[in-house]
Design a protein that fits this description.
Strand order of the largest sheet: 6-1-8
Largest sheet: 3 strands, mixed
Strand content: 5-15%
Distance between the termini: 102 Å
CATH class of one domain: Alpha Beta
CATH topology of one domain: Alpha-Beta Plaits
Bound molecules: iron/sulfur cluster
Shape: elongated
Helix content: 25-40%
Order of helices and strands: HEHEEEEHEEHEHH
CATH architecture of one domain: 2-Layer Sandwich
Length: 205
């Protein structure tokens, strides 16, 4: 029916308005900032960069692939890829972001960067009290300001972080199995070459 959604919305508003006189559960507003409502698991505000371990720069997962930079609708991510490489959690050498800036004054909190990142590196934070009197540079944040631990991610989005941990653990197991198979194949090839050399007839003198 045309307008059914509007009628349902108005009915919910009326239920909350009248219900708020008899039930605290119907009070949909609080006296902010003295009172705060705990954020729900799927709340998202602005992106942050996840790191593992204790060192934010060493443990930063981002490999500077720049997919998020390309996909960000308002183009507020700015990345410069490093010239050298550092080991990732699989001990494979990877580029890292020499520069990773986000202009949060432009970011529209769409979460696309987090969705497209193939490396579980960028996630959406729940922090929203970021107001500043510096209109031009105050919300341009760099990789040091963006870096937050995986522990923080687990705290704010436990379900997503568990799925992310499981995906990375599966990738690590796959990489370790491949490394083991490569070592075994090399050892087998070396043993076969040695055996072949041993049965070669000695050339007549
Ligand atoms: S949340 Fe959206 S707008 Fe903000 S940096 Fe990510 S992709 Fe860009
Ligand atoms: S955050 Fe993810 S998508 Fe963006 S550059 Fe880093 S690894 Fe690539």
């Amino acid at each position: 029916m045309l307008g059914e959604g509007i009628i349902k919305g108005m009915a919910e508003t009326a239920r909350n308005f009248l219900g708020s006189y008899v039930s605290d559960e119907r009070l949909t507003t609080v006296q902010y900032p003295e009172e705060r409502i705990p954020q729900i698991e799927n709340a998202r505000q602005f992106p942050f960069l996840v790191f593992d371990g204790d060192d934010p720069m060493k443990g930063m997962r981002c490999v500077a692939c720049q997919i998020c930079e390309k996909e960000c609708p308002p183009k507020c991510i700015y990345i410069v890829k490093s010239k050298d490489k550092k080991p990732d959690y699989k001990n494979q050498q990877q580029f890292y972001p020499a520069t990773f800036d986000i202009d949060l004054s432009v970011c529209m909190s769409c979460g696309i960067c987090a969705e497209v990142c193939p490396f579980e590196s960028i996630k959406m934070d729940t922090e929203f009290e970021l107001s500043t009197t510096d209109r031009f540079g105050g919300l341009l944040v760099n990789k040091h300001q963006l870096a937050k631990s995986n522990g923080h991610y687990r705290k704010i989005h436990p379900g997503d972080a568990a799925a992310s941990d499981a995906a990375l653990a599966a990738e690590l197991a796959k990489a370790q199995a491949k490394a083991k198979a490569d070592v075994e194949a090399k050892a087998k090839a070396a043993a076969e070459a040695k055996a072949k050399a041993a049965v070669q007839p000695t050339p007549a003198t």
